[in-house]
Specification:
This protein has about 290 residues and is mainly alpha-helical. About 70% of the residues lie in helices and about 0% in strands. It is built from 10 helices and no strands. Helix 4 packs across helix 5 and helix 5 packs antiparallel against helix 10. The longest helix has about 40 residues. It is elongated and about 80 Å long. The two termini are about 15 Å apart.
């Protein structure tokens, strides 16, 4: 064990921080595996939440149950499960290296942990720099990706997938419509097909309308909105991309603050890992010589 006070502090801080991340990542992997293996039990357990006395949705249990049923459709569950498993496994591997390297004072594991963090940190810096240098191209590709997700996967009616639910959540909470506006739904193939089959003459989804009550319920304040959207009953001319860009610009200080804090934590972890690695090496050299 290293005798240096600073190295010992770094060691126990690394142990504590990585132990927390191991616990969190393990829970994420277990949750993802459970979702992938047994969707039915997850659906039953989730729906049972609505009957709990502490649930804030008790005043409208029927509406809450309807929302939950939509969000736990098999397609949504399956997509979320694999994302959770991949994210949890990645966090677990990195945290495991850091924890075992610190607790066992293994220079190999500490070095691997530090190198992984340096790679992640470098990729984040590169992403920020490239986004700044190639801002117009980044905006073009980002907007293109969003438009593709909308045109290929967005639908209406029953059996909504995770993409549709995500778009509905974004549009309902940000009070916007599509990427650039309501015209995006004219090229949404699944949406156009389902709307035609519906026979209502639907032009936009409910989430594009001015809503009343809880946004999750997607209840238009003006029922005619989905058929005849106007600027007075919907957000048809307000694109989500511009709305989000404006939101980021208005809260730029907060965004910068979060980025700085995350970068500082990663740098501290890198410094602690290599300082402990160096201290372990010096300690072993000392015992070898004397």
């Amino acid at each position: 064990m290293v005798a240096d006070c600073g190295a010992n502090c770094a060691r126990w801080l690394l142990c504590l921080a990585n132990f927390v991340f191991i616990a969190v990542s393990t829970c994420v992997v277990i949750a993802g595996t459970w979702l992938a293996a047994d969707k039915a039990s997850f659906i039953n357990l989730t729906l049972n939440v609505t009957s709990s006395e502490i649930n804030p949705a008790n005043s409208s249990n029927g509406d809450a149950e309807k929302i939950l049923k939509e969000f736990v459709e098999p397609a949504v569950i399956e997509q979320a499960a694999y994302i959770l498993i991949a994210l949890g496994a990645f966090l677990f591997i990195i945290s495991f290296l850091g924890y075992c390297g610190a607790i066992k004072e293994s220079r190999v594991l500490l070095t691997a942990y530090g190198i992984f963090l340096i790679i992640i940190f470098a990729l984040q810096i590169a992403l920020i720099l490239l986004s700044t240098i190639y801002k117009s191209q980044a905006e073009h590709h980002s907007k293109g990706f969003l438009k593709t997700s909308l045109s290929k996967y967005y639908t209406t009616g029953t059996n909504k997938d995770a993409v549709t639910h995500s778009w509905d959540l974004v549009m309902a909470h940000m009070s916007c419509c599509g990427v650039d506006g309501a015209e995006d739904f004219r090229t949404a193939k699944l949406f156009v097909q389902k709307s035609s089959a519906e026979g209502l003459g639907r032009q936009v989804p409910e989430s594009c309308c001015i809503l009343t009550g809880d946004p999750l319920l997607l209840q238009p304040a003006f029922p005619s909105c989905i058929i005849s959207p106007t600027t007075s009953n919907s957000h048809l001319s307000t694109g989500c991309y511009n709305k989000f860009s404006t939101m980021v610009s208005d809260n730029l200080d907060m965004v910068i603050g979060v980025v700085v804090v995350v970068a500082a934590i990663q740098l501290l972890a890198i410094i602690f890992a290599f300082c402990l690695c160096r201290a372990v090496g010096q300690e072993r050299d000392y015992h070898y010589k004397y």
